[in-house]
Amino acid sequence: MKIRTPASVLSAQDQFGLRLANRLGDSTATLPHDISERLRAARVQAVAQFAASQQRPAVLVQANQGAAILAFGKDDGSLWSRVAGILPILALLVGLVVMNVVTNENRANELADLDSAILTDDLPPSAYTDPGFAQFLRSRLDNQE
């Protein structure tokens, strides 16, 4: 039984495997029936396992009772697969905390700048509550132009 496939389609590893399979297939004619049947069964199992390994995606999203689970290939419950599952959530939480800290710091800096501008202005702070303050601002803008 010879297996024939165009050599331009196959890699070097596949070509070696075909040559080996052909050499082994040449000597099976002289084997007893029970041994050839065991070899055939082993060949069928190997092809089935190879086909199953080719169909499994590297990253898999599974739905489990209304929750989506991100699985990286075969989930064997090892420490690394658990870390890989927790790592994106941890990165998200760290990002949210950093954004909160930066936003609070920017807001505090803006308020400090506003307070220092009010206190260093030539206008006393009590003038800001005066009803004539809008008139003062208008006259000041007219003087600057």
Descriptive notes:
Strand 1 and strand 2 (67-72) form a beta hairpin. This protein has 4 helices and 2 strands. The model has no long low-confidence stretch (mean pLDDT 78). It starts with 11 loop residues before the first helix and ends with a helix. With 145 residues, the protein is mainly alpha-helical. The radius of gyration is 38 Å and the shape is rod-shaped. The chain has 2 domains: 1-55, no CATH class; 76-124.
Quick summary:
The protein is mainly alpha-helical and 145 residues long. It is 63% helix and 8% strand.
What are its keywords?
145 residues, mainly alpha, 2 domains, two-stranded antiparallel ribbon
Overall pLDDT confidence = 78
Could you tell me how far the N terminus lies from the C terminus, measured between alpha carbons in angstroms?
Answer: 100 Å
Number of helices: 4
Shape: rod-shaped
Low-confidence stretches: none
Helix-strand category: mainly alpha
Q: Widest sheet: strand order?
A: 1-2
Biggest sheet descriptor: 2 strands, antiparallel
Q: Beta-strand level of the residues, as a percent range? A: 5-15%
Number of strands: 2
Element order: H for helix, E for strand: HHEEHH
Overall structural domain count: 2
